[in-house]
Write a structure and sequence with these properties.
Layout (H helix, E strand, L loop, with lengths): L3 E3 L20 H21 L3 E8 L5 H9 L7 E5 L14 H4 L8 E5 L8 H4 L5 H20 L2 E9 L2 H13 L9 H7 L2 H15 L6 E5 L3 H17 L12 H11 L18
Parallel strand pairs: 2-4, 2-5, 3-4, 5-6
Antiparallel strand pairs: 1-6
Helix pairs in contact: 1-9, 2-9
Length: 283
């Protein structure tokens, strides 16, 4: 199954598969290709002064971090920022819950990636009692209005929901417990939230049904297969950015840099801007 795009849809989350239709062949090669596409798209976005927000939601262990690592691997870090979102600081709690996200919006030419987001108001704050019922119920309208402001102002907004099964989450928890290099990922809050699995599934479903709009659709990515989820997520991101930029106006090497390379090392060291051929004599 491919990522499911939702726009003003009414879905039942339990009816959406969490596994792909078939295993991915040669996932490393596909990810490499997508990372190059993303780099080109980022350079076009930077040159044209566009702004992009990539937002990832999903239950614990759904694979948000793994996708973000592969998303950012070859991007220019000077114009790509990752914001892991946890509980608000005490001073932030005295302000509207969207306040802290306004502070993290991208500048022209930047990509901002949210690992969790403002949807915490209708997820963890709803389920675990950090927000009153009237607060999280009105948040759907507030969030839709906030996202409309962003997209009306020209921001490219890409919302991904990683759809994981309870069985796959259990296996990933066991993997983290048994593997010393992954234990740092575990928190008591992660384990506690598993007790509310059914409540969270209901909250995710409400989130998707109430906030999948034409200007800010949701993409539901089946997440049980890590490789397939990463490929689908990177593909959705690349496709959405490319719709808003002119790739013909962007190259991996700036023309002034190309001229300097030719002057310094000779023309034969370049090969269709894909990199170095190893030919040419140093000067």
């Amino acid at each position: 199954m491919k990522a499911l795009k939702l726009v003003n849809d009414s879905i039942k989350l339990k009816k959406i598969p969490t596994e792909p239709d078939k295993p991915v062949k040669d996932p490393s090669k596909k990810i490499d290709e997508l990372q190059l596409q993303l780099l080109r798209a980022q350079l076009a976005l930077l040159k044209q002064g566009k702004r992009c927000i990539i937002m990832m939601e999903g239950t614990d262990t759904a694979g948000k971090g793994g996708i973000i690592r592969r998303l950012t691997r070859h991007l220019d870090p000077r114009s790509a920022h990752v914001w892991p979102i946890g509980a608000p600081e005490k001073w932030e709690q005295s302000r509207h819950y969207l306040f802290r996200f306004w502070q993290k919006l991208p500048e022209p030419g930047e990509i901002t990636i949210f690992d969790r987001s403002w949807y915490g108001r209708v997820l963890v704050e709803r389920i675990e009692g950090f927000a009153q019922e009237d607060e999280w119920k009105r948040a759907y309208r507030e969030i839709n209005e906030f996202e409309r402001q962003l997209t009306d102002d020209g921001v490219i907004l890409i919302k991904l929901f990683l759809h994981l099964s309870k069985e796959a989450q259990y296996n990933r928890f066991m993997e983290r417990i048994k593997e010393p290099t992954k234990r740092w990922k575990l928190t008591a809050a992660d384990l506690k939230s598993r007790r509310f699995w059914g409540d969270y599934q209901e909250a995710f479903e409400d989130m998707l049904n109430k906030t999948a709009t034409k200007n800010a659709p949701w993409y539901v990515v089946p997440a049980d297969d890590k490789d397939a989820a990463r490929i689908q997520a990177l593909g959705v991101i690349a496709d959405n950015i490319k719709k808003h930029v002119d790739l013909e106006r962007s190259t991996l090497l700036d023309p002034t840099v190309v001229a300097a390379i030719i002057e310094e090392f000779g023309e034969d060291v370049l090969h269709e801007e894909r990199g170095w051929t190893g030919r040419g004599k140093p000067r």
